[in-house]
Design brief:
The protein is of the alpha/beta class and 352 residues long. It has two domains: 2-63 and 76-124, 3-Layer(aba) Sandwich (Rossmann fold), CATH 3.40.50; 141-326, 3-Layer(aba) Sandwich (Rossmann fold), CATH 3.40.50. It has twelve helices and twelve strands. The strands form two sheets. Strands 1, 2, 3, 4, 5 and 6 form a six-stranded mixed sheet that branches. Helix 8 links the parallel strand 11 and strand 12. Helix 3 crosses helix 4 and helix 5 (141-160) packs parallel to helix 11 (297-321). The longest helix is centred in the C-terminal third of the chain and has 27 residues, at 325-351. The protein is globular and about 55 Å long. It starts with a helix and ends with a helix. Bound molecules: nicotinamide-adenine-dinucleotide (NAD). Nicotinamide-adenine-dinucleotide binds at residues 140-141, 144, 173-179, 196-199, 202, 217, 231-234, 253-255, 281, 284. It holds the Pfam family ELFV_dehydrog_N.
Amino acid sequence: MFTQMEYNGVSDLSLHQDPITGLHAIIAIHSTALGPAIGGCRFIEYPTTNDAIQDALRLAKGMSYKAALAGLPHGGGKSVIIKPNKPFDRTALMRSFGCFVEQLNGRYITAMDSGTLTTDMDVIAESSRWVSCTSADGDPSAFTSLGVIEGIKAAVRHLFGKDNLEGIRVSIQGLGHVGMAVASHLSMEGAHLTVTDINTQRMRIAIEEFNAKAVSTEDIYAADVDIFCPCGLGAILNHKTIPLIKAQIIAGSANNQLLEPQDGYALAQKGILYLPDYVINSGGLIFVALAHANEDQQTIYHQVLNIGHTLTRLFTESQASGIPPFILANQQAEAILANAASLSKTHQRSIV
Ligand code: NAD
């Protein structure tokens, strides 16, 4: 366990079980150097407890990088409630999880993630102050999709020297909360869409409402488009799919799009501009953090628009240095975290 924590740079790992509700939950805190750790709570089934722990550890690190580059005063954390494989009382589980979050006394702030809903956050809020995305706050997806659109516009400006999306051809993988909103926005701005989803109902909506061309889940990679926008699954950029891709830009919301870091280099070698996933999809986290800080929608909106500026800066630095944007993003996030950690150590020493 300690080796896994060390590998992911995670400082704290808390496990909690409650025999009354059947709760088995994990909270991983990667860093609190910039501020309280923040990140969603997953409520899904796992083959083993170790898989659940691994997921929390890996995701917590990603949240630290995302918060650092988004300029948020937060470290990264992630929690997992292992979905029981027998009947359970969802409300009781969430309430018990809220008590677990509260025990950490603000070191970790939880929010929605795969398998959790705003109504779950309402229940957690009954027993903890450290929660965002309640029904009063809302769902972060709208802000995630806004960030994706800003990222796409920044990439189009950088690579094609174009200030609008008229006639730009975009393929979208996954028409869920984020993908459908992105499709709607792109279509309004005059982009031509090619889409796929395992859910045929969602495909039908995109065909009817956005005049999208539908392709199979296998054919999406080779679609003849300018931009590929992955909004479904992780690890979809790999040695099998990269040779098929015709798009010049990859810009989507899915987390952990690269199977391995070398896949990012393979994209760069092919001359494809890959927008680091945790930068372009940080609109949701910006919303989660600022909603928890009681900021208004206008303030959140403006901070999400900054995603486009951050990406433009990365493109320019990448052009000057020859280092791909995803590596630059990692380097910059690590520098921000290291600087914050050394400042906090100096501060602790001065208190002693
Ligand atoms: P979602 O579950 O609402 O949508 C995912 C969609 O992908 C679904 O419609 C699903 O049917 C489809 N899908 C699943 N397997 C597929 C396949 N093989 N091929 C094509 N489509 C497939 O999720 P979401 O909230 O829209 O998030 C999309 C992605 O963005 C996820 O990777 C998520 O982790 C990431 N993300 C989301 C947010 C957010 O605010 N929702 C924030 C940051 C990152």
